[in-house]
Amino acid sequence: MQMIRRESAMIGALFFFNFILTSATFAETPAEAIGARGLAIAKESDRRDTGFVSTTATVEMILKNRQGQESRRQVRVETLEGVGDEDKALSYFDHPPDVKGTALLTFSHKSASDDQWLYLPALKRVKRIASDDKSGSFMGSEFSYEDIAAQIVEKYTYQYLRDETYDGQAAFVISRDPVAERSGYSREVVWIDTTHYRVLKADYYDRKESLLKTLTFSGYRQYAGKFWRPDEMFMVNHQTGKSTRLKWRDYQFGTGLTDADFTQEALKRVR
Fold this sequence. Notes:
By secondary structure, the chain is of the alpha+beta class. The protein has four helices and 15 strands. The strands form two sheets. A 13-stranded antiparallel sheet has the order 6-5-4-3-2-1-15-14-11-10-9-8-7.
């Protein structure tokens, strides 16, 4: 009996030792923990904006150069929420006359590179935006083609940085690194409010890790009892001194848009 008790004790000790080893193996490291928290914040922000189905809006785009000279453009924007992989968006330029009829079609993907096509009415042709060109300026603005695409969660890896107050609001600060090798950014630092999980601010760092641009959001309003949208988005380029302000209005939800409204042929039908 004594020998049986000793063997039982040894077996119990062995199981306990194995349990400790296994637990240590699967425990999160500090880096994994901050990554998981950053990802959780990004997912919650995305979840709260899920279900809008389709939207339309009009935008005044105000471009300002280093000397303070302004030019203005009028844009119509249509979006279609993807089921699974693909969100779709169309941007039509209505004014001024030199850009009227120009249109951009974007298919945003979770894992594959985004598809984008630009219709140029003067040439009467559709131009595909190559992956290497997506860090380039969209229609002379401080927004790149990459910025115009939907900011899908799977496009980044994440880290939680800290909590802090921004513009009088409690905010999470997270870092997100683009997965795409051809991204124009090395990383982005994003402020998300802790109440509604809305993006308040984003700093964009270039491939040399220098601060390139800052985007701020203001005048949030709630639509359809759930979805928050800003009245203004302001992008400033710290390296060139240029800026672009987007003034949003006439948001409409559940507009009945379908996949048939987001094709290369639809780009050419803009009026």
